[in-house]
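Title: Request for sanity check on Heme chaperone HemW prediction

Description:
We are preparing a figure and want to confirm that the structure record we downloaded matches what your pipeline produces today. Could someone re-run it with the sequence below and paste the raw structure tokens into this thread? We only need the token string, no images.
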Amino acid sequence: MNYSLYIHIPFCIQRCHYCDFNTYAGKESLIPDYVDSLVEEIRIVSEYISPFPLHSIYFGGGTPSLVPVTEYQKLFNALFELTSIAEKCEISLEANPGTVSLPYLTSLRALSFNRISFGIQSTNARDLIRLGRTHTVDDILDAFVFARRAGFHNINLDMINHLPWQDLTAWENSLSRAVALAPEHFSIYSLMIEPGTSLHDWYQRGLMTPQDEDLGADMYEFTIDYLDRAGYEHYEISNWAKRDEENQFRCMHNMQYWLNQPYIGIGAGAHGYINTIRTENVSGIENYITRMRKRGEFRVGLPETPATIRTTKIDDITQMKDSMWLALRLVKDGVSLDRFERSFGKSVLEVFKEQVEELLHLGLIEWGGLKQSNLKLTRRGLMVANQVFLRFI
Ligand code: SF4
């Protein structure tokens, strides 16, 4: 059994106008105590998962690049002592342009980070301001060059499109400038206007017009074709990896989620999935630190730590449904019928005959893979993927 480890870093300089993530601005003074708590939580997990083999570690946020190198040193000391990190373990850091320097990234590379994911969102200066980002287009260029010089050969760029003020030409320009940097990976999402965000408030007050759904679909189709021509494999609904004969650049950490494999979530608000139990940690930074300091007062044992506020046992049929819709997100591979049967001792057609036949009939899924034994979305299915997934939720 190989695990993936997600470590949440809930600190940001300011909240972006579209963001509803579990993150907090202006609390950087809590970083040292927070990191001590993370080390404690890793120690507790290592007590009940032993050995503790890891093949991916992902520091997500928030803005993990706000954490000083000395704090990461503490975390890596604990990881090297308490877990068994695979030789080719993917170790990713989410970073914001404007928060990194060449010495900082060089130190992180030396600590074993080997993948970096920059949240650039757009290469258009006006977009960055309207989204409430704290960085400029020049910061993006600097951060990218620093990362290359520091020795990162696996760089992801996170982008958002379908912005309320954005037309197709503006998105084409934004994407083409990002492609010119030649990263190894892209994650591209359509903007969701979430309640509680500034953008949502502006909508409510009539300061913005609703997004045009057809334009969103046009942007998605353009992105698929453009990145294909630029040499990127579209392997997941919102993710593209550079085609390369010698290296693979799919995000191994996220593959663990899409293949419905176990992962451990450490930190405030982190989620995990261990031994068919989903876990959720307390969300606030102070609450998290307090719970970890008072570990003796809380129940501890697989899969719970003092930070756990909820556990949900996933029954067999839900595991099978999750495995279907998550794997259908993998647009190249789809659902492997062999893998499904090995995992559950039942065939896909035994469990989901009705749904599969209906979706095949509608032309939304098709047979694929080397032995034609995988079920994957068709191009038409890709455009209405959420409706396909609903058949399994
Ligand atoms: S930097 Fe990322 S996590 Fe932080 S507020 Fe902006 S979008 Fe949210």
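Thanks, this matches our download. DSSP finds 15 helices and 17 strands in the chain.
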